[in-house]
Structures are given as structure tokens and as C-alpha cells.
Amino acid sequence: MDDDCVKVDYWTKLEDGRIECRVCPRFCHMRAGQRGLCFVRRAREDGDGMELTGYGRSTGFCVDPIEKKPLNHFLPGSAVLSFGTAGCNLACAFCQNWDISKSRETQRLSSFAMPETIARAAERLGCASVAYTYNDPTIFLEYAVDTAEACRARAIKNVAVTAGFICEEPRKRLFAAMDAANVDLKAFTERFYEKRCAGKLAPVLDTLKYLIHETSVWTEITTLLIPGENDGEEELDALTKWVAKELKPDVPLHFTAFHPDYHMRETPPTPLATLQKARAIGIANGLHHVYVGNLRDPAREATLCPTCGARCIGRDRYEITEYRLDAEGRCAGCGTKMAGVFADKPGTWGSRRLPVAIEQFAA
């Protein structure tokens, strides 16, 4: 086993000797030495289970505003240390991070950092949280969980940015280590998931219901609207009604703009009017907090009080322009408690993006 590989759980051995990975609903079958679609989980050469390759190795680190995840109701204005690894367990034709998620680890795993180093870096950089992002923490679960434990020992919170395509038992383990999550609900049809992601919708919906009803993890949802693919009014109506009924009306939902990339370079970018239409549908269906993202629209990026309609948090992309919540997260106008996780006062990180040389924080 390589120095940066660790044995992992969530697998079973089949009668023909192959290993079946049980981390995500793809259930990859591998002979000794073979890798799953995610590329980072591999059947061991000795046939004794599976291993996570590249443990402790990342595609890079950066301090971002928490609003970039996007999370609008979790420590607004704060800084988050973001990192991910190579690989992904979905195959989205429109991937905005394809150079990372579709790469081979030898090409992209440029930074070496063990969990304690990451926690130390977050603390020294003044980050309120660490985000497991860029690809999906599902595939590097053990690395993410170990890092989360090191962060919690330093009172640093943990954020999963995930597609939610994960099996039940590993899901429990991953989210037990997390304080917040943004789940990428890519569409609301099985057809889209099969055609554009090589995945399935149902397990993602199960993850969302689990997070909202069975955990204390603060959860927000993002749907990237792609012209002609998942932006029809009927689908948006069904999606927003499902969130309001099966989850909660106060779950924040972000509709974000697509930009041509990867295998969908001929598809046009999402017009602002499409995002505004989607937001209006969500509000009409009873959702309290529906946001527009990836295009500038301050009026629809703001957090409004669901009771009196006052603007409680003003935003211009990743900048906080107004903040009218008290120390307990209540509307300064009518006293309504805002859904979310709020500090005594907003952070001041702003829209900065700070690449980090993680090696400088090694012991």
C-alpha cells in the first residue's frame, strides 16, 4: 500500500472475488488494484478490501467567503478554508470544476496536508470553518472526517459541499462530523440525472430528507439552472413544492446561473430572467428564502424576514452590504428568529479569495 493510502470501510466482497464499493449508490465492482469511477477509491492489491488513495493530498487550499459555498444562513460574512481532492463519483457533463473532479490524482494532487495541519491553518488564518468542496467529500470521506475531528478540537466548524449521492451508513458518518452542508440538487427528474450526471435523483432526495429531519446539520440547497435542460416551469414548480412539503419552507434554496463548460460548451449561459422566474415560483410555493446566484442581482441576493419582509441581510455577490439581525439572529424590525446559524455579529471577510500554501502550517 502506498504511503498516502489508507484502508477504508463500506465495501463487500462478491462471490467472484471482486470488491463492491458501498460508499455511493454507484456500487462500483473492482478487481484487485482497480479503481472506481471516482478514481480515488481502489480495491487493494491483496484483495483485502478497499483503500483511499491520496489520503492527505489535495488539489489546493483557498480562503473564501462562506457565501461562495453558497451558504447565506451560516455565519454570514465569515471566512472558510476550502479544499478538495481529485476525482468525483458523478460524471456531470456540465461540471464547473471538471479540471479537478475529472482529473487523475497524479496530475492534480499538489498539496500534502494531514488533518491537524488543515485545522491549524484554519485557526491561524482566522477561518470560522473548513469546507470540503470542489469535488465531493463523499469520495474522500475518511480524510474529511479525520480533518473535521481535528477542526472541532479547535472550535472550527465543518461544511460539506456535496451532491448528496451517498449510501446510508457512510452518510451517517460523514454528516455526524459536519455542522453545515450545501447539497447540489442538480435537477428534479431521473432523466436529467441519468443523461447528464450518470447518477440517480432518488438517493439525493433521501440525503436531503435525512439532513433536514434526522440531523442538526444546517442545510441549504443549490440548483444550477441549465437552459433547455432543467429550467422548465413545470419542473421548477415540482422541485420547489417538494422542498416546501418534504423538507421545510425555511430551507434556503439557491438558483444559480450556468456558464458553458466541459462537455456543454455549446449550451448558452443562463439568463438572469430565468433565475428570477425560478425564484418567483419558489416564493409562490411557500419557500421563505430563495436566492439568485452566479449573476449579480442584489435585490434577490438579500435575506428577507419571512414575517415582516424587512431586509435583514443585504448582499452584493459575496459582500455583506447590510445586516439587521441581533445577537440571537432575530429580525431587528419585528423580532422573528431567522432560520440558520448566526454569530453575535457578521464576519468581515468580504469577497476576497486567498490561495493558501498549506505546507507553511505543517508542524
Element layout with pairings:
Layout: E1 6-8, E2 11-13, E3 19-21, E4 29-30, E5 41-43, E6 50-52, E7 57-58, E8 61-65, E9 79-83, H1 98-101, H2 105-108, E10 111-112, H3 115-124, E11 129-132, H4 141-152, E12 157-162, H5 168-176, E13 180-184, H6 190-197, H7 202-214, E14 218-225, H8 233-246, E15 253-257, H9 272-284, E16 290-293, H10 298-301, E17 303-304, E18 311-316, E19 319-323, E20 354-356
Parallel strand pairs: 9-11, 11-12, 12-13, 13-14, 14-15, 15-16
Antiparallel strand pairs: 1-6, 2-3, 3-4, 5-6, 7-10, 8-9, 8-20, 17-18, 18-19
Helix pairs in contact: 3-4, 8-9
Kindly describe this structure.
The protein is α/β, with parallel strands linked by helices. It folds into two domains: 6-52, no CATH class; 61-355, TIM Barrel. Helix content is 25%, strand content 22%. It contains ten helices and 20 strands. A nine-stranded mixed beta sheet has the order 16-15-14-13-12-11-9-8-20. A three-stranded antiparallel beta sheet has the order 1-6-5, with no helix packed on it. Strands 2-3-4 form a three-stranded antiparallel beta sheet, with no helix packed on it. Strand 18 (311-316) and strand 19 (319-323) form a beta hairpin. Helix 3 (115-124) packs across helix 4 and helix 8 (233-246) crosses helix 9 (272-284). The protein is globular, with a radius of gyration of 20 Å.
